[in-house]
Amino acid sequence: MTNHDFITLQVSDGTAMEAYVAVPAESGPVPAIILLQEAFGVNGHIRNIAERLCQEGYAVIAPDLFHRTVKRLEASYADFASVMPHYQALTQDGLSADLKASYDWLQQQPTVQPGKTGSIGFCLGGRVSFLANAVLPLSAAVSYYGGGTDTLAHEAVNLHAPQLFFWGGKDVHIPQEKIDTVINAVKAAGKDYINTVISYADHGFHCDERASYHPLAAREAWATTLAFFENRLKK
């Protein structure tokens, strides 16, 4: 296996899942991050984020969450219709199994530091990153504009690590009441969190391949993300 390539993992439900991995070349154990895709697949944007995190000294794995219905989908950002059948086929049990397979692979790598794993996700992946924090013993988790996270609010009591949330104030897909549902559940559960609403940003603001890309918001959120990970995975 090269340090930057797709690998195949066996999932507990008997399915085979491909995942993109990016592992720093230097020797010595490094912390790890599970990177969770948008609804458009483990595409160039997601692989670029994997490389950026790898350059910061993290071993990264980005699982193909649609693997039960399609292999390595990379859909156009203008064609959500083609994504819908695969998006709708996702289940919490399936996602939990995918997350555990990804986590287990990381823990088996001699270059990965045990007990220092985080997650980060965008769009669909933002919701899955919240789930990851509930089903895995993570040290940090980050969710960017995770649509549908409110449907997982009941999992707040199971969060293992502090959760960093980013939302776009102009995002009509995720109204304030849905954000409130998530944050109030985390607060009621007594879990640590940071909740950041960027008033001038829309859904997908971090992705430079989307029309909604907001360079300033992306830079500011990324700087916060790196500090959050460094403080919890490298200290």
From TrEMBL:
| Domain (Dienelactone hydrolase) ranges | 17-231
- Is Oxidoreductase one of the keywords UniProt gives this record? no
The positions making up the signal sequence are: none
Arranged from A to Z, the UniProt key words for this protein are: Hydrolase
Q: Which GO terms describe its molecular function?
A: hydrolase activity
Q: Which Pfam families match?
A: DLH
Which InterPro entries does the protein's record reference?
AB_hydrolase_fold (IPR029058), Dienelactn_hydro (IPR002925), Dienelactone_hydrolase-like (IPR051049)
Gene3D superfamilies xref list: alpha/beta hydrolase (3.40.50.1820)
Q: What is this protein called?
A: Dienelactone hydrolase family protein
- What organism, scientifically named, is this protein from? Rufibacter sediminis
